[in-house]
Recover the amino acids of this structure.
C-alpha cells in the first residue's frame, strides 16, 4: 500500500505549488457531488489520467490502491442495488428487482469514489507531507480566529506522515504471523477475518504506543501550538507553472460547471 | 541442503525508488550449525532471511532448501503477540491439535525457552520484554522448525535476558540438532554462539566461513568483539595470541597457560 507516500520525481505536477493543488482538491471534492452523469465522470477520469501521465508517477501505484478499496466499493454497491426500488425495472429474478435508477446511481457512486481516490492520490504522490501541511496553514489562515489552524495542520501532517510507517508495520507483522503458519489466503471468509485479528491487534497496540511516544517526544521538545502562531510564514512564490495550472483549473471548472448545468 | 544460486532481490522494481537489496548471492550453508549473519544496516540481512521461508520471492535466481519447516523469529518478536494468555499465544500455530497433545507441546517449548508452567495462564502483555520475546520465540518453536532463523534476537533486551535467550538457543540446537541462523549486529554474540558466519555488504556476500576468520579480514568494517580487541592489543604489545581465540574463557586459559610457562 502506497497511500501517503511522496513519489519523488521531477515533473510539472510536482512543481505546482502545494497550495494550489490542495485548493483544487477541496473544490473538486465539493463539485464532484453535483455530477450525476456517467459520461461526465468518464471525461474527468480521462483528464485525471492525463495528469497522472504528466506527473510521471507509475499508473500501477494508483491501480494498486484502487484494488484495495474495490471490494468495499463493490460491497456497498451490491447492497444498494437490491434495496433501491425507484425507476424502471431492467432485471427481475425471484424477489430481486434491479432498476435503471439503481444502476445509474451505483455507477455514479462508484465513479465518484474512484475519481476522488485517483485525484487525492495524485496530490499525495506529488506533494511532500511538509508542503501539504504548510498549504493547509496558508489556506485556512484567514479562519485562524475560528479554527485551530496550526493544530489541524499538525494533525494532518502526523496522520499523513505515519500512514507509510503503519503500512510497513502491518506488512511486517503479517509476515511474522505467516511464519507462524497463519493462513491469510484461507478460502473461508470467517477464518480469514479471524486470522487478520492476529495482525490488527499488534498493529493497534503499536500505533497507540507510537502515538504515546510521539506525544511525549513533542512535549519534551516544548511543542506548543500557540508558539507556531508567532512564526512568520514564508511568502508563496507564484511561478510560471502555477500560472498555467491556474488557467487549467479555471478551464476545467468552467467545463465541469457547463457539464453540470447541461446535465 | 540449503543452497542459494544467483539470488537477487530488488525492492520496488521498476519505480524511481527501486533498491537492490541482494545482488547475485551464491552460497551453500552448512546444516546443523549455528550460522551468524552479519553486516551493516541496509546490507540485505533481513531480506536474505525472508527468502528462506518464501515470505519474499527472489527477483532472480534459485533457492534449494530440502527442509519443510522453517521458523523465522522476527526482530522485536514481542510485537506480534495478540492472544490473551501465554498458552493461547504459544498454541496458536498448533490450534488444530487435540488439546492434550497441544498442552504437552506448549509445556515442552515453554521449558525450552526457560519459562515454567506458572506462565501458562498469564497475560503475555503484562510480561517483561525478555519474557515476551521468549513467549514469541516459543510460538515459533512449537511448530518444530528444522531451520530456526532469529532476526536480532537480543536487540533491546537487558544483558541478563540476552544471555538467557542465547543460552536457550544454544541448548535447542544441541537438543534437536537443527540449523540456526542468527542475524545480529552484536559481534560478542556472534563470536560466542556462532560456528560459522555469513558477512554481507551492499547485498553481496563478502565472506562465508569459520567465525574466528571473519574478524581478521582486512576489510572487516564492523565493531570487533571485545575479546578479539584485547587479543589484537596484546599482539601489538608483542604477546602472541593465536587468531582462533575469540572466546573470553579461551583467552583467559591461554594467558594463564603462558604465564605459567614463563614462571616455570
Amino acid at each position: 500500500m502506497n497511500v501517503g507516500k511522496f513519489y519523488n520525481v521531477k515533473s510539472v505536477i510536482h512543481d505546482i505549488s502545494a497550495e494550489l493543488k490542495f485548493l483544487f482538491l477541496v473544490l473538486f471534492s465539493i463539485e464532484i457531488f453535483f455530477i450525476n452523469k456517467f459520461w461526465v465522470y468518464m471525461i474527468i477520469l480521462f483528464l485525471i489520467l492525463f495528469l497522472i501521465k504528466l506527473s510521471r508517477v507509475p499508473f500501477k501505484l494508483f491501480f494498486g490502491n484502487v484494488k484495495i478499496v474495490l471490494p468495499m466499493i463493490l460491497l456497498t454497491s451490491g447492497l444498494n442495488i437490491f434495496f433501491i426500488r425507484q425507476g424502471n425495472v431492467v432485471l427481475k429474478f425471484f424477489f430481486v428487482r434491479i432498476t435503471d435508477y439503481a444502476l445509474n446511481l451505483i455507477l455514479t457512486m462508484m465513479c465518484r469514489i474512484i475519481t476522488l481516490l485517483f485525484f487525492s492520490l495524485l496530490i499525495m504522490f506529488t506533494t511532500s507531507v511538509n508542503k501539504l501541511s504548510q498549504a493547509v496553514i496558508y489556506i485556512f489562515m484567514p479562519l485562524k480566529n475560528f479554527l485551530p489552524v496550526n493544530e489541524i495542520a499538525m494533525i494532518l501532517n502526523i496522520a499523513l506522515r505515519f500512514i507509510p510507517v503503519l503500512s510497513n508495520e502491518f506488512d511486517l507483522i503479517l509476515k511474522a504471523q505467516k511464519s507462524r503458519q497463519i493462513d491469510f489466503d484461507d478460502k473461508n471468509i470467517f477464518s480469514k477475518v479471524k486470522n487478520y485479528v492476529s495482525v490488527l491487534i499488534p498493529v493497534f497496540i503499536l500505533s497507540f504506543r507510537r502515538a504515546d511516544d510521539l506525544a511525549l517526544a513533542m512535549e519534551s521538545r516544548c511543542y506548543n501550538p500557540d508558539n507556531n502562531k508567532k512564526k512568520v510564514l514564508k511568502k508563496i512564490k507564484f511561478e510560471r507553472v502555477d500560472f498555467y495550472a491556474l488557467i487549467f483549473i479555471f478551464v476545467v471548472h468552467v467545463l465541469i460547471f457547463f457539464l453540470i448545468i447541461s446535465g | 541442503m540449503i543452497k542459494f544460486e544467483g539470488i537477487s532481490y530488488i525492492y520496488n522494481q521498476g519505480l524511481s525508488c527501486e533498491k537492490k537489496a541482494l545482488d547475485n548471492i551464491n552460497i551453500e550453508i552448512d546444516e546443523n550449525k549455528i550460522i551468524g549473519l552479519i553486516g551493516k544496516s541496509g546490507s540485505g540481512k533481513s531480506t536474505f532471511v525472508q527468502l528462506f521461508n518464501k515470505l519474499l520471492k527472489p527477483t532472480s535466481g534459485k533457492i534449494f532448501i530440502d527442509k519443510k519447516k522453517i521458523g523465522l523469529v522476527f526482530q522485536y518478536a514481542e510485537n506480534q503477540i495478540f492472544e490473551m494468555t501465554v498458552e493461547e499465544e504459544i498454541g496458536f500455530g498448533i490450534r488444530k491439535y487435540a488439546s492434550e497433545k497441544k498442552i504437552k507441546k506448549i509445556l515442552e517449548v515453554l521449558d525450552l525457552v526457560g519459562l515454567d508452567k506458572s506462565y501458562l495462564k498469564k497475560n503475555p502483555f503484562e510480561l517483561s520484554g525478555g519474557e515476551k520475546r521468549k513467549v514469541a520465540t516459543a510460538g515459533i518453536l512449537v511448530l518444530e522448525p528444522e531451520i530456526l532463523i532469529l532476526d536480532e534476537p537480543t536487540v533491546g533486551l537487558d544483558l541478563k535476558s540476552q544471555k538467557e535467550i542465547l543460552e536457550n538457543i544454544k541448548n535447542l540446537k544441541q537438543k534437536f540438532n537443527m540449523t540456526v541462523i542468527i542475524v545480529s549486529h552484536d559481534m560478542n554474540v556472534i563470536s560466542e554462539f556462532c560456528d560459522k558466519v555469513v558477512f554481507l555488504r551492499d547485498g553481496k556476500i563478502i565472506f562465508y566461513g569459520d567465525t574466528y576468520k571473519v574478524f581478521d579480514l582486512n576489510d572487516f568494517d564492523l565493531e570487533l568483539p571485545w575479546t578479539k580487541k584485547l587479543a589484537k592489543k596484546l599482539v601489538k604489545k608483542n604477546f602472541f595470541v593465536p587468531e582462533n581465540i575469540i572466546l573470553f574463557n579461551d583467552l583467559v586459559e591461554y594467558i594463564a597457560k603462558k604465564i605459567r610457562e614463563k614462571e616455570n
